[in-house]
């Protein structure tokens, strides 16, 4: 990279809209769409697994195996079918989020205390209403903790998609920076990617505060919750989920 | 009225939880299901709101077969209080209480207004309305649980060991509160507990279950304590049932003696004469308002200068007292046992001494009630 300065501000100024802005927007899109798709699949799948517990071990193994497949391999595997469209990145990334989201949804539902569920039945909630008004809201803190891990992981993984030429900040790093031995785009790409991860994580924390006001300032409740989870999740908790749960307790 | 006819619950693995149960639960009264764990009392309770379906048999509420009713709809007409309160952690206290009104489609303002009414009824502070359950103590949570069960004013209230998870002091106050509420509301209450004292205190009638899901005895508390049908029931209600049964007899049956009560301004010499004449080793010293001050023994009187007033002598603490008009024989016996002089001090409602009851007199009173039926099915005052 010779004796160029590490950052050339004039390059940034000249290229702010394109490619920097374009790549950033692509990156946001490539990250958010899989997270949303992941959520749309993980919530019903988690509900089903929590309801019919015998299903959960095989589903859990399934999403973990998917997670173990290297992303780059999955991109190339899909390329013949989806071509150079965003779907080539979106489909694998969506599948990866499941490995984090499904266990968190299931754990969240498992930790609804039995006496709370019993009380809801006895009050006369229909099963669907009980799920929507009682069980899912109580599962929310753990589910959001998983969502935070999934969001940050996805934002960082989008960069890999650029290796296949699918856009995103990775493309900025690879095409504009690495291939041309030019450090400025590499640094810009990294900084923006990290900032984006921070921003999304911050928004999710804010969302959790708004959606779960009852968890605020309750050390006692957090301790109860973690104890309940240890009971419910013994043996089936993935490392990724553990991280998520620990985060939930920290907030 | 709730009736069980030939109710049996058999699980697929062959376990029988409830075995051919026939029982009538009268409307407006409190019926307690009591028994050791695994006797089917909770299972039986949960059949009433169809949380458990019987294998065979018929249950009716107000004459209607509960199988003809949609379970969710049926449950909204039956209040339910669970052991750990089962409050919804994500809802405020007021919204927890308004749960069933919300389900019944009342508007939010009306449901919440009703919830606030109930908060007052069960003794919660209005400023607790916007709190979340984890911010309340166990006893307060249980009050919320009771309020929530009463929110839609159901005629039937099912209570599944509601007070067993709180400490004894809180439990006693919750029990007293329930007695007060029931006197006002006259609900058909079915209450499950494994604590026979709680059953005796709260129940108009008690159903004792034996392991294997059979009904051993259904009776009023007093008759249950007086005549347990067999050795199982007798063993379950405990060996102090005789003493417990005394709660059903009023202390009014006693005739406290007044000749061993002296004012504290009486001279020791005169007091000693009184003691000798009564043949009692202890005199009770009272102040000018007839409030008890303490016991003085004949030895102390004999050793004292006859001219001093008894109030200035060394008095022995009088311990517990019982209220003659409102307490039970059990309270009087308790006061006598705990008294250093072995005699119970009976007072009136204002705390003025009525008289003294010696253990021998208590003994004959207890003898005389041993055979007869209690005058009342309700325990005399809540001394549990």
From TrEMBL, chain A:
Q: Where is this region: Disordered?
A: 221-251
Q: Name one GO cellular component term.
A: plasma membrane
Name the InterPro entries on file. ABC_transp_perm/SBD, MetI-like, MetI-like_sf
Write out the biased-composition intervals (Basic and acidic residues): 221-232
The transmembrane segments are 28-50, 62-81, 87-106, 138-166, 186-206
An example Gene Ontology biological process: glycine betaine transport
Where is there biased composition of kind Low complexity?
Answer: 233-243
Where in or outside the cell it occurs: the entry states: Cell membrane; Membrane
Going by the UniProt record, its keywords in alphabetical order are:
Membrane, Transmembrane, Transmembrane helix, Transport
Query: SUPFAM superfamilies from the xrefs?
Result: MetI-like
Q: Which PANTHER family match?
A: GLYCINE BETAINE/L-PROLINE TRANSPORT SYSTEM PERMEASE PROTEIN PROW, OSMOPROTECTANT IMPORT PERMEASE PROTEIN OSMW
Indicate the family of this protein.
Belongs to the binding-protein-dependent transport system permease family.
In Swiss-Prot or TrEMBL terms, this protein is called Glycine/betaine ABC transporter permease
From TrEMBL, chain B:
Give the matching SMART domains.
AAA
| Source organism (scientific name) | Nocardiopsis ansamitocini
Give the similarity note: Belongs to the ABC transporter superfamily.
**Keyword Protein biosynthesis tagged:** no
The UniProt keyword set, sorted, is: ATP-binding, Nucleotide-binding, Transport
**A molecular-function term among this protein's GO annotations:** ATP binding
Q: What is this protein called?
A: ABC-type quaternary amine transporter
Top EC class for this record: translocase
Q: Matching Pfam families, A to Z? A: ABC_tran
Assigned EC number = 7.6.2.9
Provide the leader sequence positions. none
InterPro entries xrefs = AAA+_ATPase, ABC_transporter-like_ATP-bd, ABC_transporter-like_CS, CBS_dom_sf, P-loop_NTPase
Domain of life per record: Bacteria
